[in-house]
């Protein structure tokens, strides 16, 4: 018996549901920034952001984890080709942020405070334009070993 096992919106042609798998790619980049809000005065900026408000900025070695969630394609055995994900991350994220002054070199942050939270949102928005609808599940940005921002595209 010949059964076509192609995936169509989470269901295989034989009527069975397709397994859903999470895949993840990790990359690293180095960048500097300064936590500073033009909506606050100098004293408030120093009080809220502390040493991260240093006028000369400071740097991080970021670790970025991008997770996709989707059905496994029966013909390829993949949710998405990880080489494609790697290329999207390099083109849309690393080439823009790696070895850059985030506040000065990335126009998005001209009027947006470059917190880990906002950088994670920026990364999501860039990748969402390139990754097929519904596959992007999570952007996890490690600013340090102890400080992590996770964004899943949720809005309130």
Describe this structure in words.
The protein is an alpha+beta fold. It has a single domain (17-151), classed as Tetrahydropterin Synthase, Chain A, CATH 3.30.479. The chain has 4 helices and 7 strands. Mean pLDDT is 92; it is low at 1-9. Strands 5-3-4-6-7 form a 5-stranded mixed beta sheet. The protein has a two-stranded antiparallel ribbon with strand order 1-2. Helices cover 26% and strands 29% of the residues.
Structure characteristics:
156 residues; alpha+beta; Tetrahydropterin Synthase, Chain A; five-stranded mixed beta sheet; two-stranded antiparallel sheet; 4 helices; 7 strands; elongated
How many domains is the backbone divided into? 1
Helical segment count: 4
Give a quick account of the main beta sheet: strands, pairing sense, barrel closure: 5 strands, mixed
Q: SSE order in H/E notation? A: EEEHEHEHHEE
Distance between the termini: 50 Å
Number of E strands: 7
Pathway: Cofactor biosynthesis; tetrahydrobiopterin biosynthesis; tetrahydrobiopterin from 7,8-dihydroneopterin triphosphate: step 1/3
Family: Belongs to the PTPS family.
GO biological process, one term: tetrahydrobiopterin biosynthetic process
Enzyme class: lyase
């Amino acid at each position: 018996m010949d059964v076509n096992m192609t995936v169509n919106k989470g269901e295989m042609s034989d009527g069975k549901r397709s397994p859903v798998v999470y895949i993840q790619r990790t990359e690293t980049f180095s960048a500097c920034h300064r936590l500073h809000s033009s909506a606050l005065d100098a004293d408030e900026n120093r009080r809220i952001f502390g040493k991260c408000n240093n006028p000369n900025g400071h740097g991080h070695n970021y670790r970025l984890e991008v997770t996709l969630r989707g059905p496994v394609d029966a013909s390829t055995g993949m949710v998405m080709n990880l080489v494609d994900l790697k290329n999207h991350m390099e083109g849309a994220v690393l080439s823009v942020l790696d070895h850059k002054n985030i506040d000065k070199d990335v126009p998005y942050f001209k009027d947006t405070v470059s917190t880990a939270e906002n950088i994670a949102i920026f990364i999501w928005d860039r990748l969402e334009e390139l990754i097929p609808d519904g596959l992007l599940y999570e952007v996890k940005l490690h600013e340090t070993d102890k400080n992590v921002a996770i964004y899943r595209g949720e809005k309130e």
